[in-house]
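Have a close read of the entry that follows and walk me through the local backbone shapes. See right below:
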Amino acid sequence: MEKLMRLLEAECKKLLSEYGIAVPKGSIIQKPEEAREVLPKIGGKAVLKIQIPRGQRGKAGGIRPVYSPEEAYNQAQELLNSTFYGYKPAYLLAEEFVEAEREIYIGAIVNRSERTVTFLSSRYGGMEVEEMAAEHPESLLKISVDPILGLMPYQARMIAKNALPDRPDLRKGLMKMIFNLWKLFHAMDAIMLEINPFAVTKDGRLLALDVRMEVDDNSLYRHPDLTKRVYALKESERKAREYGIAYVELDGNIGTMANGAGLAMATMDLVHIMGGKPANFCDVGGGASADRIKRALEIIMSNPRVKVILVNALCGITSGVEVAKGIAEAIKGMKEKPNLVIRLSGNRAKEGRQILQQEGIEALEDAREAVSKAIELAGR
């Protein structure tokens, strides 16, 4: 669900505009022909940006300048038919080409440990903002904002001054945008909102060139439209949602599945602690049927990075027999059976282990032993 709450750049910019924060002229592109048509309307040259729910799109080649209608068509066609970080772009955002005199950074994030919102500002922005903050730590200002009292005028002045130390003529305008940013952060129940880069143009305009926002998924009842954003999910995550399976893809090579969110997270933690890397979070829920377990395994196996699947089933409501039947059904008829490590314990686990044994699959009782074996197989 967390990825469902990460808004796309175009969605964020629509909100920024509504809250009085300036953004470049732009247009949504769903077909290559639209890129060709829109280019003359936004200045003759533009930047095409893939719309996926994650950052570092530029480093992946998902942000490209175009200088002619034909080039816009060709680049749009390529971008719309490509996959980036496992996502096929929902659409593209074509924006006017902005020549920035400088780029700054403004952001806000929920600080759970302090129970505040931390505002950040830096006179350095752009793709290398983290590296610049490491090289010049004095350039990054952090200010804690009380969520009840809200952003104070003196705090907004400090944020603006740190971002534009030598441009007092622009600070008043930036302060106004910072206050509007706070209003948007609060209204959308955001947990993170950053504008990077915030461009200062040669003619003195302040434009939000890129923006990221994540919304607290506990606030869904206040934002029902966000639940319809299935295009923000990967294909595997979309299928899981249809089957009632909680699934989030990660970057590791050990597929994991458990019956219960707590056990699923504990399984991932144990894999990390013992030196492995989980490829996903997968919770089939209590009382899961054999069919749901089969579906979950098929989804996990669709990830090409997965070298081994670790199933950790502590059976209470879920019967060990149902778990075993689901696993047996999933691998039946497969030409090449996946590496499976099963931990089966609890309600009817003994009968379940017998079913798996008939399929030539060993099921263990100890979780640590199962994790250790999965890590060993993943390393081969």
Residues 130 and 316 are 46 Å apart (CA to CA). The chain has a mean pLDDT of 90. Residues 168-187 form the longest helix (20 residues).
